[in-house]
């Protein structure tokens, strides 16, 4: 999955260069600047609800990329029973946040608008690891930070040359991580796989041009 996402990023980056160079031969849009605001409605690697979104600033200069940022946060809970003692249970309560900075190009189309972008950032996880046995309960925190790469596409419907409503999909690539690697609790008797947070963030948003 991680390799496929890296391949997608390479394709997207090549597309940006082509569209960016072709933009030199086109006339800049009438507006001076545009502000994008998007709300995250889902993330495919999260089991529950999410919060966050994306922002961006567009300008009329065709050669220089536009700048933006993405952010998403979600909570998860995972429980596992010890293979050595059925009365021992491990609970993982994790808060995950992904934050990236990106750049993008607006691609002109006759009816709809399109923006293609790539970015990079960091994913941070804070996991409360709790082991409950028949005689004791132990807890510890495990905090991890992992690099993230991003590729995204926005497709929008412009109205009156000043307002645009759009949908977005942000593909986030993250290496699989062991949520308990920084915990002081021994978890060798629990069957825990490395967690994959590679996924896609779906957004809806609006752009206002000035």
Structure overview:
The protein is mainly beta. The protein has a single domain (2-197), classed as Beta Barrel (Porin). The protein contains 1 helix and 8 strands, in the order αββββββββ. The protein has one helix at 2-22; strands at residues 34-43, 51-58, 66-81, 89-107, 113-132, 137-159, 163-174, 199-209. The protein has an 8-stranded antiparallel beta barrel with strand order 1-2-3-4-5-6-7-8. The longest helix has 21 residues, at 2-22. It is elongated and about 70 Å long.
Give the percentage of residues in beta strands.
Answer: over 45%
Radius of gyration (CA) equals: 21 Å
Low-confidence stretches: 16-30
The CATH topology turns out to be Porin
Total DSSP E strands: 8
Report mean pLDDT, rounded to a whole number: 86
The helix count comes to 1
Straight-line N-to-C gap:
40 Å
* Count of discrete structural domains: 1
Topology pattern, helix = H, strand = E: HEEEEEEEE
Shape: elongated
Class based on secondary structure composition and strand pairing: mainly beta
The helix fraction, in percent, is 10-25%
CATH class: Mainly Beta
Major beta sheet, specifics?
8 strands, antiparallel, barrel
Strand order in the sheet with the most strands = 1-2-3-4-5-6-7-8
Quickly give the CATH architecture.
Beta Barrel
């Amino acid at each position: 999955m991680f390799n496929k996402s890296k391949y997608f990023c390479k394709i997207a980056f090549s597309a940006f260069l082509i569209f960016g160079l072709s933009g030199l031969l086109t006339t800049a849009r009438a507006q001076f600047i545009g502000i994008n605001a998007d709300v995250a409605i889902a993330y495919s690697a999260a089991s529950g609800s999410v919060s966050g979104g994306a922002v961006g600033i567009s300008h009329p200069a065709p050669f220089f990329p536009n700048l933006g940022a993405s952010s998403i946060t979600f909570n998860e809970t995972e429980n596992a029973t010890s293979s050595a003692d059925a009365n021992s249970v491990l609970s993982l309560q994790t808060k995950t946040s992904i934050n990236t900075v990106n750049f993008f190009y607006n691609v002109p189309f006759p009816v709809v608008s399109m923006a293609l972008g790539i970015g990079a950032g960091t994913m941070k996880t804070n996991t409360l690891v709790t082991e409950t046995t028949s005689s004791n309960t132990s807890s510890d925190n495990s905090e991890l930070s992992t690099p993230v790469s991003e590729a995204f596409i926005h497709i929008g419907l412009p109205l009156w040359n000043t307002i645009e409503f759009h949908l977005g999909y942000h593909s986030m690539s993250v290496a699989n991580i062991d949520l308990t690697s920084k915990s002081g609790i021994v978890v060798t008797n629990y069957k825990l796989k490395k967690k994959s947070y590679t996924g896609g963030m779906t957004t809806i948003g609006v752009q206002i041009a000035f």
